[in-house]
Amino acid sequence: MAGIYVHVPFCKQKCTYCDFASYSREIGKAEAYFACLLKEIDSRALELKEKTFNTIYLGGGTPSFVKAEFIGATINRIKKVFSVTSDAEITIEINPGTLDEQKLAIYKAVGINRFSIGLQSAYDERLCSLNRIHTAEQFLYACSLLKGENISVDVMIGLKDQKIEEVKATIDLAIKGGANHISVYALTPEEGTPMFTTYLNGELPSEDETTELYDFARDYLSTLGFERYEVSNFAKKGFYSKHNLNYWRRGEYIGLGVAASSCIDDRRFTNTEKIDEYVHCLLNDKYAEIFSELIEGDEIKNEYIMLAMRTSEGIILSDYTKNFGSDFLIDYKREISDNQKYLDVCDYSVKIKDDYLYVQNQIIINFMKD
Amino acid sequence: MSKTPKNNVRNFCIVAHIDHGKSTLADRIIEMTGQVSQRDMENQILDSMDLERERGITIKLTPVTMYYKAKNGEEYKFNLIDTPGHVDFSYEVSRSLAACEGAILIVDSTQGVEAQTLANCYLALDNDLEIMPVLNKIDLASSRCDEVAKEIEDIIGLDASDAPRISAKNGINIEDVLEAIVNKIPAPVGDDDAPLKALIFDSYYDNFKGVICFVRIKDGKVKVGDRIRTYISDKQFDVTEVGVFSPHLQPRECLYSGDVGYIAASIKSIEDTNVGDTITLVNNPAPEPLPGYKKALPVVFSGVYPLDGSKFNDLKEALLKLKLNDAALSFEPDNSMALGFGFRRGFLGLLHMEIIQQRLEREFDLDIITTTPGVSYHVYKTGGEMILVNNPSKLPDPSEIEHIEEPVIKASIFTPPDYIGPIMELCKEKRGEMITMDYIDARRVCLQYKLPLNEIIFDFFDSLKSRTRGYASLDYELSGYQTSELVKLDMYLNGDICDALSVIVHKEKAYARGRAIAEKLKDVIPRQMFEIPVQAAVGGKIIARETVKALRKDVLAKCYGGDITRKKKLLEKQKEGKKKMRKLGSVEIPSEAFMSILKIDSDN
User: Fold this and answer.
1) Is B352 a residue whose pLDDT tops 90?
2) Is residue B456 predicted with pLDDT exceeding 90?
3) A358: which DSSP letter?
4) If you average pLDDT over every residue of chain A, what do you get?
């Protein structure tokens, strides 16, 4: 099974930490963009007609910011030309400040069944300083519209002067809104964002302080019945994100739209970040790929391990064997023994011990071949 | 080209304090005599190694032969011998001075006479050279030629009233210098028909010709086909090529007394051509060699280990190749419990060490670990036997030691009087004993100190500069050994002793230094999966402890979708970084850690 990712590069205003391909002054190009997106969908579907897809994910930007009709048309077209399973997980990212009943009606009508809400913080002053366009109140309103739906909420940690109380309040608010899946992301200051200046000024918490917040979130979510199934993702049983799990199992996916990445038949490729370039290419019956790389040999294993080790399941031995035709315990005998202190090894899987999941890079790099 | 009459030959060098414009003046002289076309002129042409140009210092000596048509209508042959400007290389300087009849003494007219000006000037006087002062940097607003001319007279006792006043940088009054060379520096004396005496003042290894000896012919002549022998190494060779420097090698038929040039004789080892040695003819030997030969003695020692233990042979090859070019470098195999097989190297000084270090990394692309530099101790054992110890891990058990002697230096520090206080304080911290303090004039004092060498090889020079806002300058010479209360300071990482980090220190400084090293190591050792105690110990007793806390967060953020390629690159980079680390027991240490403890300011 494979996944489909659709990128919607529009937003009302840019958050201070955001370095994704998202543009706050380009909404006028939405019509042209979605027209080209449909072209890309048709064309990719032809190439991939042998493959079956069980997840669709609309990310951004703010997919809920653009006209719902664009979203509806996109999903409908995907379902029409790709082979999408009837029980597919279809997720849309929502900014609470942009959702209304009419939009939601269209989303539901085309089969969207999972709503990933960017909350980030329960504190309005924080939301304001991050240049978010919504309040905690608006979050609850959006949740009230989504009542009974499958809701995921994003929570940020590692923000300036952030205390455990804020993380707790945010998780509490997410629960109140009905979340059954919560992602806890540590802020990564990216160059070129306003947040980077804050970082350079030394105003962000240290890694140890961020780890305190993370540990709190992990423990607190555990008491609330959320399992950590990946280093940053927590969910109630049965609510794991299939789309993301596909990434971590190194499954195949096709990315559509600007800045979208794909991995098909071990070829990784990425589209341009620029809307104009994307539109130009598609209008000229070309893809807008700016990067393409065939992953071969040990590189495939490196990727597989780097991704799988993020999950609490770790390397599932049978899945490894299915992918590579050999036994993980034999292929990595030395690495496993060198790192045994940090690993749980059983008949079924090899995974990083809970306590070391947050320092996993140190372990993963020992498994990567040159 | 016909042979220039001896009367029209001038052999000279340029001596100066560092940065007073020596290489720049050399460039101008070469340019003015048309030796190198403007087009080929690269600034500081004599500093041919990249490293030299980068650091603005001269390491290897590079002579050059030029022709100058003087105002009196005659053509003169100039042999300019460039000299290294750093105290580490003072022996090399003295030998190249011995190849000359005169020296241009450049003094920065904004700075005046500095320690090295004096030191080099005395060296030149020792070699009976005619010294010709030149005042440089007259283009600068802060130039004060009259005062500095008086200073030269007062301090050195040279008449500087008619010294050329120039700007080497801007090419002002360079001709005055050329004329002064003709008029003031004596022509060489020597007898073409006497037995050959050629002074080796430098040499380097050429892949095709073997060792190229830079020589000054004092007496006699030498040509291709002559069978020659060296005095010190007592080896015989057949001359394959002789010539001059333009500044590249330019073969000639014969070199005569008074000439400066080179001899190639398919010599395989640079150790056969010691600087200061004399070359003569086998069938008509000179009865005795030229005076003044000294073997270059290493004074600073440090270990070098390949980061990757399997590269030991590459390191050995690289050292052998460097040795071809650098007779002052010595090394012998060594091994460390912590670092495996490597070498213990001896250097003329810290600068020399740094240069070798960088050349190993740049020219041979080796990842190496250098251990803390130290000096060579005379250790007297209870049985009366004396052993030389230049590797802390080889120091015998304290119970077997009767006493230890450490090398001391005589340091001459020149400073404006304002900084006497801070300098005395610094020297006291460094266990110095004052010998004398002389007021040279109202603005300049010379402090002479006896200091243990191992105190100054660390950060003495930097501290001196920072405490005197750059005004003080330093020159030193080794002056023997003295008994001292020394102990071995050991470092433990995660409970295991790390012999490569051991140092020999004075007993009273062990605590402070142990603490400082532990603190420094705590900062340079990256956090790892577990807590790492860093301990300093003397004679098994722990005197300081720091802790490298366990790593708590090392994870790629938001790893999904398109990020994967970029995130994978991040991990690969992290893996590369790990390769640059050396594993000691279970602890990974970056190679810089070994050197970083050098940079500990002893004040903290």
Assistant:
1) no
2) no
3) G
4) 96
CA trace torsion B4, B5, B10, B11 (10° rounding): 80
Strand pairing class (B587-590; B581-584): antiparallel
Q: Is the model more confident about B403 or about B291?
A: B403
DSSP code per residue over B538-555: ETTEEEEEEEEPPP----
B555, B561, B562 ranked by CB distance to A361: nearest: B555
Kindly indicate the confidence band of residue B90, based on its pLDDT and cuts at 50, 70 and 90.
low
A283 assigned to some structural domain: no
Query: Among A246, A266, A364, which would you mutate to test the B interface (most chain B Cβ atoms within 10 Å of its Cβ)?
Result: A364
In a domain, A253, yes or no: no
Enumerate the residues of chain B whose CB falls inside 8 A of the CB of residue A306.
567-568, 571
pLDDT tens sequence across B253-262 = 999 999 999 9
- Taking an 8 Å cut-off on Cβ atoms, the answer to whether A362 and B567 are in contact is no
Tell me the nearest-neighbour CA distance from A180 into chain B, angstroms. Answer: 19
**CA distance, residue B573 to nearest chain A CA (Å):** 10
Q: How many CB atoms are closer than 10 A to CB B213? A: 28
Give the confidence band of B598 by pLDDT, cuts at 50, 70, 90: low
Q: Complex ipTM, two decimals?
A: 0.91
Q: Taking CB atoms and an 8 Å cutoff, what residues of chain B touch A188?
A: 557-558
Residue A341 structural domain? 298-367
- Res B39: pLDDT: 42
Q: Does B571 touch chain A (CB under 8 A)?
A: yes
Tell me the whole-structure pTM to 2 decimals.
Answer: 0.71
**For the CA atoms of B14, B20, B24, B26, what is the dihedral angle to 10 degrees?**
0
Distance, in angstroms, between B463 CA and closest chain A CA?
30
Which 35-94 residues of chain A touch chain B by CB within 8 A? 59
Task: Find the helix packing angle between A317-324 and A298-308, rounded to 10°.
Answer: 160
CB-based contact, A161 to chain B, within 8 Å:
no
B575 vs A342: CB contact, 8 Å cut-off?
Answer: no
Same domain, yes or no: A198 and A107: yes
Domain final residue, candidates A247, A263, A282: A247
Number of domains in chain A: 2
**Can you tell me the distance from the alpha carbon of B86 to that of B80, in angstroms, rounded to the nearest whole number?**
18
pLDDT of B603: 43
Q: Show the domains of chain B with their CATH numbers.
A: 6-184 (3.40.50.300), 197-281 (2.40.30.10), 300-370 (3.30.70.870), 378-484 (3.30.70.240), 487-599 (3.30.70.2570)
How far apart, in whole angstroms, are the C-alpha atoms of residue B502 and residue B571? 34
Spans of chain A, pLDDT less than 50: none
Q: Is B557 on the interface with A (CB under 8 A)?
A: yes
Residue B244 has pLDDT above 50, yes or no: yes
**Nearest chain A CA: its distance from B529 CA (Å):** 8
Please say which residue of A218, A247, A276 terminates a domain.
Answer: A247
